Amino acid sequence: MKLGIFDSGLGGLLIAKSIRNRMPDIDMIYLGDTLHVPYGSRSNEAIYDFCRRAVEFLFSKDCNLIVIACNTASASALRRLQQEYLPEHYSERRLLGVVVPTLEEAVEQGAKNIGLIGTNYIIQSNIYEDELQKIDPEIKIIQQATPLLVPLIEHEGTKWAQEVLNDYLEPLKKQSIESLILGCTHYPFLKSTIQDIVGPDITLLSQDEIIPGKLEEYFQRHPEISEPIGRNASAEFYVSDITDSYQAAANSIYGEAISIQKTEL
Amino acid sequence: MKLGIFDSGLGGLLIAKSIRNRMPDIDMIYLGDTLHVPYGSRSNEAIYDFCRRAVEFLFSKDCNLIVIACNTASASALRRLQQEYLPEHYSERRLLGVVVPTLEEAVEQGAKNIGLIGTNYIIQSNIYEDELQKIDPEIKIIQQATPLLVPLIEHEGTKWAQEVLNDYLEPLKKQSIESLILGCTHYPFLKSTIQDIVGPDITLLSQDEIIPGKLEEYFQRHPEISEPIGRNASAEFYVSDITDSYQAAANSIYGEAISIQKTEL
C-alpha cells in the first residue's frame, strides 16, 4: 500500500501530516504542483490537465490510492479522472477527493443547514451542493466565496483577516447554519479567528481533521488495498517548482523539516 | 514594425492600451501567460522558462520588438533573454523591459530619493536598486514589498486597500522620497488611494504613463525598426488559458471589448 497525496501547492501538507499522524505505517508520497499554483482562476481544461499529469506521476511512483487534497482539483477533475481509471480496469489506481468525505462528515453530525466557504472556483462550480444533493437533498448548503483568505494567509496579512472575515461571514451568520465547511486546504490556519466570529455553537469542519478518519474507514471497507507496512513507512515529498520560500513554507506547514524533491510536471 | 507586449497575465493590457493610444499606427500583439500567472513566487528558472516560451511565440508571430510589461519577468529574465538575442545576431529581435525606462523617468524628473513598491519577487530581486546603481549611484531607492495589493485588486478587496496601504506605506512616508514607483502592472488601479496616502508632493511613477513615451524615444533613436504603418494598424490578443472571467477582466482593463485567442505556451 502506497498512498499518494496531491495538492495544487503546499497547503495540502497539513492534511498529509494529519494522515501521517493517524496512519504512520503507510508509505506516502506528497506532490505539490507549485509551478502552477493557484488553480482557482484557471479553466476547467487547464486544471484537468495539471491534475492528470499529477496523478500519472503518482501512479508511476507506485501509489495505488491517491487523495486529491485540493478542493479546486477535486471539484474540477476528480470525477473525470475516476472515469479514466475505472476500478474494473485499474484495480490498483484509485482516486479520492475531499468534497464528498467532508459532506458525509457534516451529514453524520446531523447538520440540516451547512455553511461553506471556499475559493471563487469552488463556489462557482457548485460542487458541494451537487454532491450534497446525492447524499440528502433535504439538507441545505449556504455558500460564500472568500477569495482573499489564501493571499492573506500566504502574505502575512492575517492581521487584516478578522476584518475581511467579518465581512465575508456576515451573510452566513444570518442563516441558521449548524456547521461550516472550511473548503480550502489553507483555511485551517484561520480556524480560531473564524470560530471567534461565528461563535461556539457552529461546528467548523476542517479537512485536516476529517480526511484521515474517512480514509481509515475507506481502508476498512477495502481491506484488499490496505495491507499494513509493519515498519516505519516512508514519506517522500515532490514539488514542480522549488524556491527557498517554498521549502520554508513546507517545513512550517508540515511541522518539521522535510526533504523536498523537484519533479517535472 | 510589429510590437509584441508580454505580461504574465492581463494587467499589462493597461500598458498595451496606453501604447496603442499613443502609437495607433503600429501593429501590436499582446500575450498574457494566464496559464502560469502569477510569476511572483516562482523560481528564477521557472520564470525564465515561461518568458522564453512567450518571446519565442511573439517572435514567431513576426514581432521585431517585444516589451516585457511584467516587472517580475523583466527582473528575472530580461537580461538573460537579451543575451540570447544579441542585436548583432538577431537585428530583428529586440527586447525591452519596464524597470530601466521607469528609473530613467524618475531620474530625469530630478528625484534623489525614490520610493518603490512591488511584489515580493521584485523587492527581493533588488533589480531596481541594481539598475539604478548603473544610472546614478548617488540616488537612493527605498523599497517596500506590497504583496497583498494584486489580490486585493483582483478579488474585490479594494475596500480594504486603504488600510493595507496605510500599513505598507508608513515606512516610505518616514523617508523623504520625491517620487514613488508603482512597480507592478496592477498598481495603477490604486493610484488615487496611494496618492491620497502619500500626499500631493510625491510624484507617482506609473508605468502605463511612462512606457509609451519611452518607447517613442526608443523608436526615434532606432529609426531603422520603426517605419510607420500608415494605416489603421492591427491589434491581436493572445492568452495561454481562457475563461469567462479572464475575458471580462481583459475587456475591463483594456477599456473596450477585445477578441482574445488562446495559444499553447
Tell me which CATH architecture of the largest domain in chain A applies here.
Answer: 3-Layer(aba) Sandwich
* Rg of chain A (CA only): 18 Å
The overall pLDDT of chain A, averaged over residues, is 94
Shape of chain A: globular
Straight-line distance between termini of chain A:
24 Å
Number of distinct beta strands of chain A: 10
- What share of residues are in beta strands of chain A? 15-25%
Main-sheet strand order of chain A equals 4-3-1-2-9-10
Number of helical stretches of at least 4 residues of chain A? 11
Oligomeric grouping of the chains: homodimer
Largest beta sheet of chain A, briefly?
6 strands, parallel
Order of helices and strands of chain A: EHEHEHEHEHHEHHEHEHEHE
Specify the CATH class of the largest domain in chain A.
Alpha Beta
